[in-house]
Amino acid sequence: MNTARIVVLTVAIGAGGIAAYLASGSDNSAPPPAAPVVQLPTVDVLVARTDIGLGQPVKPEDVQWQTWPAATASATFIRRSERPDGNTQVVGAIARAPFIQGEPIRDQKLVRAEGSGFMAAILPSGMRAVSTEISPETGAGGFILPNDRVDILLTRRDKNPDRASTAGDLISAEVLLSNIRVLAIDQAPKEKDGQNAVVGRTVLLELKPEQTETLARARQSGTLSLALRSIADVNAKDNTPDEPARRRGESISIIRFGVPSQMTAQK
């Protein structure tokens, strides 16, 4: 073998060895360390596994524990760290407001019936549930649903004392009670779950004790109608008093055909 070929072969072997060394060094190089993952503190919160409707008793399969970020868990939520038996403690309680799936369970939206009926359990302290008849004509066309707010109007027909008048009987109307909560329609306390209307014959109203007296007298003296209030006006202050001047011996002013007159209320 001549000298030139030996030199070329030597150079090729040396270059291959250098390349192999460099390749082995790059394979053994360690990758850069990954950035540490920040672990947010979490808590187990009791939530609704399925939708729980208004007035529905809570069953064991209706609730479950779910992991929540501690920073977003309200103090009103039921936490497993504070109440490990919370999932069994709420069983049997009645939902005084509906829960949607995944919503945290709160004691403020539950009530214990303690042997009483559902309506007595959810009725606030000091309030009364009173029913009265309605129709599509007197009930806002059936568009009134439980938990809506209404005004109650009284319309009555009085005999015209002036027999010579051609005006006939005198019609008067007034707002009897304002901002009254509707508890149920025909014993069906359902939420607004996509229904367009509930046309019923009986409405159950949430009233104060003195308002129940006003309503009872009004039912005997005329026709009651319900006026649906806007949800934006629920917290608005009304100028109409809760108890109109309708007790015995009290006078009220009624404007008929533009002419004011005084009337003494009879109980």
Describe this structure in words.
It is a single chain. With 267 residues, the protein is α+β, with helices and mostly antiparallel strands. It is 18% helix and 28% strand. The longest helix has 25 residues, at 3-27. The radius of gyration is 37 Å and the shape is elongated. The protein starts with a helix and ends with a strand. Residues 240-267 have low confidence and may be disordered.
| First-last Cα distance | 137 Å
Instruction: Provide mean pLDDT, rounded.
Output: 75
Count of DSSP H/I helices: 4
Indicate the radius of gyration in whole angstroms: 37 Å
Globular, elongated, flat, extended or rod-shaped: what is the shape?
A: elongated
Read across the widest sheet, the strand sequence of neighbours is 5-8-7-6-9
Question: How many beta-strand segments?
Answer: 11
The secondary-structure element order is HEEHEEHEEEEHEEE
Structural class by helix and strand composition:
alpha+beta
Task: Give the biggest beta sheet.
Answer: 5 strands, antiparallel
Q: What percent of the residues sit in helical stretches (DSSP H or I)?
A: 10-25%
The proportion of strand residues reads: 25-35%
Please mark out the parts with pLDDT under 50 across 5 or more consecutive residues, or reply none. 240-267
